[in-house]
Amino acid sequence: MIRIITRARIAQLEDAARAAREHARQASGAANEAFGQHVRELYAVTDRAERAEASASEAGAFLARAVEELSAAQQELLLKDIEIRRLRGELNRGPREGETLTVLMRYGEPHTVYASREDAYADTATHGAAPGSVWVPSGERPAAECTWRCEAFIYDAASNGFRRAYMPPAKPVGGAA
Questions:
Q1: Most buried residue, 59, 116, 148, 160, by CB count within 10 Å?
Q2: How far is CA 129 from CA 27, 108, 123, 124, 137, in A?
């Protein structure tokens, strides 16, 4: 079969081919633009995901430190609770026969009451007194002349109170022997 093609038909085919090339160029440009937009979005999403992962890692480290601090605080609270219960038990039982207290006196005036002499010595150190520098034997000196002085008291159940552990020897009255 032979087909005869006229110039008009060739011009029409050339116009159609030009239009198809232009359409293909526009479609290729639109595809390239869509691909570029897709790549930019992919990079943005990847960046956000990396930042979210870093933030999650920081938050995890912060949470781990917070949990450690909470655990330490709970442990300390438990120990304090145990100590409070022990002290409440001591407080509720009351004093026992022969139990001693130490009264720290400053220039003859009661300053503080302690469970032991060592606690009294330690407390004077917190007030700036060097150990051994203010603790001098009182001997015959009046209590008001001593900077710091410890007096021990023993619980006496018969009198329902405390009495001095050391009583100075009685002096004869009026030269009596």
A1: 148
A2: 94, 16, 9, 6, 16
Residues 139 and 168: their CA atoms lie apart, in Å, by 10
Q: Are 142 and 81 in contact (CB under 8 A)?
A: no
CA distances from 172 to 9, 16, 167, 177 (A): 154, 144, 15, 6
Query: In sequence order, what are the residues at sequence separation of 6 or more whose Cβ sits closer than 8 angstroms to the Cβ of residue 107?
Result: 143, 144, 145, 146, 147
User: Which of 134, 104, 107 is CA-nearest to residue 118?
Assistant: 104
The beta strands (E) that lie in the chain are given as: 100-106, 109-114, 148-156, 161-164
What is the CA angle 160-84-82, rounded to 5?
130
- Residue 54's SS3 state is helix
Which amino acid, 36? G
8 to 4, 5, 12, 15: CA distances (angstroms): 12, 8, 6, 10
What is this structure's pTM? Answer: 0.39
pLDDT 10s digits, 93-116: 766 666 778 887 778 788 788 877
